[in-house]
Amino acid sequence: MSLEQLTHHPPSPIQELEDALFREKGIRVLVKRDDLLCLPVEPGDRAFCGNKWRKMKYNVWEAKNKGAQTLVTFGGAFSNHVAAVAAAGRLFGFQTAVFIRGEPTFPLNPTLSFARRCGMQLAYLSREQYRRKEDGRVAAEDQSLYLLPEGGTNALAIQGCAELAEEILHEVQPDYCCVACGTGGTAAGLVAGFEGRVRTIGFPVLKGDFLFNHVMDLAGGKNTLPVSAWTLQNDYHFGGYAKWTPALIDFIRYMEARFDMPLDPVYTGKLFFGVWDLIANDYFPRGATICLVHTGGLQGVAGFKQRFPMAGL
Ligand SMILES: Cc1ncc(COP(=O)(O)O)c(C=O)c1O
User: Fold this and answer.
1) 197 and 236 fall within a common domain
2) Which secondary-structure segment (H or E) carries 122?
3) How far is 70 from 187, CA to CA, in rounded Å?
4) Are residues 182 and 225 in the same domain?
5) Which residue's C-alpha comes closest to atom 15 of ligand 1?
6) Is 294 found in the same domain as 233?
7) Which residues line ligand 1 (CB under 6 A)?
8) CA 125, 128, 129, 130 torsion: positive or negative?
9) HSE-CB of 217 using CA atoms within 13 angstroms
């Protein structure tokens, strides 16, 4: 796979959703289908897609320019980021290695067995070791290794996500852009790229109010961005990371049946649920155009189904 393909690609499609609710409220709802921006390693795999493509793009270039041979990262056993790094290794000719949080479990879950098929080396850290993982600066001086942080958020990732904002602006001029937040890197890139022209709304999938200042710092906008540039909606985490309720699962199934829109229960399901709820509760003014970013994450669905068969997803 050539690096050029990472940079020169058609924009991901924008899909408009029609619904009686939107007509009643006088709003337009668009979805930026970044999940369809995808480079599969195996037929149908969905690891190097969506915000992973955007976040990894300049990191892959940088790793090549530095002559690195191995991409090294960290993450949980079901992490979309880990799957994406494994895929990037196969696609662009790197070895890959990951430090996984927690004990090994066998057989490997779908995310880690995909990673292994891509040739990724897996090492496990206890939760205590994992908390201290940055202390040792895992061989930071070794030029053959290129380190990617957990979740993949760094300055180059934000640069890639800022381009997503430009792509959206080029095609449509929404009033609001809504995105799921983990580390906040994708939202920060959007905020930086929109430069206040579109109000970004981040939907954290983790509990806690730590994200606001963090995203502001990442976006580099402390004193320059207007307060209207962005906000967080903190009420749609469903209890925390990878937590779910039957209402969330029902909503995801409804979205698939009604709009042919595949969502995952960890990120995009919570985002779409939150936006639907805000629309129903008149958060958005009449005449507003809302663009939701479908950041991908569909590689995680198989692991979720295996872990929570009783959810009925
Ligand atoms: C599918 C998906 N959407 C959104 C996010 C959130 O991205 P960020 O960590 O940049 O906030 C992630 C994070 O890993 C993700 O996998």
Assistant:
1) yes
2) strand 121-125
3) 28
4) yes
5) 297
6) yes
7) 50-51, 80-81, 151, 153, 180-187, 267, 295-297
8) positive
9) 8
For a substitution probing ligand 1, which of 33, 38, 51 has the most ligand atoms within 8 Å of its CB? 51
Q: What is the pLDDT of residue 221?
A: 67
Q: Tell which one of 59, 183, 236 to mutate to probe ligand 1, the residue whose CB is within 8 A of the most ligand atoms.
A: 183
Q: What is the pLDDT of residue 186?
A: 97
pTM for the whole thing? Answer: 0.96
- The 10s digit of each residue's pLDDT in 116-125 is 999 999 999 9
| Atom 3 of ligand 1, residue of closest alpha carbon | 295
> Residue 81 sits in which domain range?
51-152
Regarding whether 220 and 160 lie in a shared domain, the answer is yes
Q: Which two tokens stand for residue 79?
A: 């992490």
Q: What CATH number is attached to the domain comprising 84? A: 3.40.50.1100
Predicted confidence (pLDDT) per residue in 169-211, tens digit: 999 999 999 999 999 999 999 999 999 999 999 999 998 777 8
Complete edge-to-edge strand list for the sheet that includes strand 176-181:
14-17, 28-32, 289-293, 176-181, 199-204, 230-232
Strand order in the sheet with 145-147: 121-125, 95-101, 70-75, 145-147
Tokens of 161: 């996500």
Higher pLDDT, 2 or 241: 241
